[in-house]
Amino acid sequence: MTGRFFAFLLAVSLCLGCGGYPEISPTAYQYAKALYSVANRQRSEKLDAVSHQISESQREGKITEREAEWLRRIIEDARRGEWQTAQQVARQMMDDQVR
Known about the structure:
Elements lengths: L1 H15 L9 H16 L5 H13 L5 H15 L3 H13 L4
């Protein structure tokens, strides 16, 4: 448990730096919501589909490269079985939009 908590703190500190996530696009917000739900339910079978959709949205210019990277980090946490970290980081991304 301590390792997971440390991983969460590290992920948040790397992503947040100086005060949280900046404003993200509505599409990126929807992906954060989807990843929060996937992580909450620990639905590993959904990760590939969300990852593919993120890549498509980035290619189409609906989300930035930076947003895609943040979302992929959440997916990576989930793929490592760090569901709580993935859920918390996705939630932080959403919460930082309500300023």
